[in-house]
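Side project, low priority. Logging it here so it doesn't get lost.
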Amino acid sequence: MDENSQRVLKMSNKSLAGDVAAICLSNICIIHCLALPVLAVTIPSSFSILLDEEAFHLCMLMLVLPVSVWALSSGWRKHKKRKATLFGAWGLGILVLVTFFGHELFGEIGEKFVTVIGASIIAWAHYLNFNACKKFRL
């Protein structure tokens, strides 16, 4: 294997790791949105500060944005398929909107619903990107 092929393989592995990380982060967001009502009822109120939705959404957004942008752009440079990148941009746009204006625009239940949709779209985009990049790795 020549030096250029090894460099591409290393880059490919990093891109795949980014996709896996972004999928995991999206799933954490979905679990948080779906489990928070149950946790709020079952845990003592002293722990409720740890579950502040706005702070959680902002922290997740600060993690998801760079990981997703990096993984999707790395993948796009490799496979040139727009579908994954467009889905990713759409999902990230939804999460940004929900993080800053979700409660006012959609209400409490609508905010959770739209967040789950946005996170699912991002996970799907990274799944598409992962598969497209995997084909170039072989």
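Brief comment: The chain is about 90% helix and 0% strand.
Revisit when time allows.
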